[in-house]
């Protein structure tokens, strides 16, 4: 597996390689085409000038014209000028070197009749075949020369471009290697910080730095993750400690009572009293164990639950019978407000048993802590959400207890005289979260409480 630093270096160097190749190729191409354009323009001008002179035999004869051609100061070397009739007969020739002739395909004469001028190469020379636009002049001018100066500069440019290209690529890979080290330095620092963080040292956090860049965002995200992990570990520790305490108390009482009973023989009535006391402790343990099992089920991944379509009004209609089984003194008032015309909007996707358990828990708490043991339950639909409110006229929840009532085993200061484990509201909160809902509470001490469940409609 290639290290990240090497991959960044290769990627950076490859990008620069491609860019330099494109730039150098473009520079060479434009200079090359500009040289061709320049030499062809000069050859065309020379052909035009020669044609005009040949058309004035009274002023310029061929010998005079050859002298002028040979004495012309031009940077081009090996200049050759040949003039042919339309059928290919040579009528004039001038060259820098004696016996220096042009070699070209005779089809050039046919091409120049259709398209003038025609550019071609004669050996190393650039050449042009040009025919005057005047149809009365039956001549084809062939001008050629070796562009020594232009080709020399083109060769020098090629060397310079190759040197720049090679040096640029080497510099790019070197710079990429150094740049990747600086780029990955924050990652290495974050990794070193994370190595020092363990379950026993979750309070430590990653240094985010002062610059609010991507590394700051990554460090901040990891710190938030660590905050959630620390909170989860603390909740787990408190849960284990509280559960152990709640389980050990009745077990200790059972063990003590049985030990005392076995120290000496007693009457049947005394044994019966001991057995009744033990039975109550066993019932307490059974209820606590069942509650812990429900709490564990509510803490599971929702993907492992049996999800189905549930009519929420049908769940609420089961509450009165369930409350009577808990306590004959419990009662509730159920009302439906603003229900939609389409009954499908009352359907939620979830687990019927868990939802029923959560709502029943809230309603039974409302009855338990109300002096008249009565609860008011209202069902309504707002936009895409189903709203369930449970209201009571009980003693209410102290303001200082409100932030903690959904924590496992937490019990308010004014609830100790009532039986319970402190798991009910925590269980309800987890069940509602499993169903992608929200649970909120509003309470005033001495006036009662209102719990609101918001669940998304399945339709």
Automatic annotation (TrEMBL):
- The UniProt transmembrane annotation reads 6-32, 159-179
Q: Which Pfam families did the record assign?
A: HATPase_c, HisKA
**Where does the HAMP domain start and stop, copy by copy?**
181-234
- Kindly give the CDD domains that the UniProt entry links to this protein: HATPase, HisKA
Catalyzed reactions per annotation: ATP + protein L-histidine = ADP + protein N-phospho-L-histidine
Q: Does the keyword Repressor apply?
A: no
Q: What Enzyme Commission number(s) appear in the record?
A: 2.7.13.3
**Keywords from the named record:** Kinase, Membrane, Phosphoprotein, Transferase, Transmembrane, Transmembrane helix, Two-component regulatory system
Could you tell me where this protein is found in the cell?
A: Membrane
Highest taxon in the source lineage: Bacteria
**GO cellular component term of the entry, any:** plasma membrane
| Histidine kinase domain ranges (all copies) | 242-459
Q: Which SUPFAM superfamilies match?
A: ATPase domain of HSP90 chaperone/DNA topoisomerase II/histidine kinase (SSF55874), HAMP domain-like (SSF158472), Homodimeric domain of signal transducing histidine kinase (SSF47384)
The UniProt entry, under SMART domains, shows:
HATPase_c (SM00387), HisKA (SM00388)
A GO molecular function assigned to this protein is:
phosphorelay sensor kinase activity
Query: Does the entry feature the keyword Transcription regulation, yes or no?
Result: no
Concerning InterPro entries, the annotation shows: HAMP_dom, HATPase_C_sf, HATPase_dom, His_kinase_dom, HisK_dim/P_dom, HisK_dim/P_sf, Sig_transdc_His_kin-like_C, TCS_sensor_his_kinase
What name does this protein carry?
histidine kinase
Originating species: Pseudobacter ginsenosidimutans
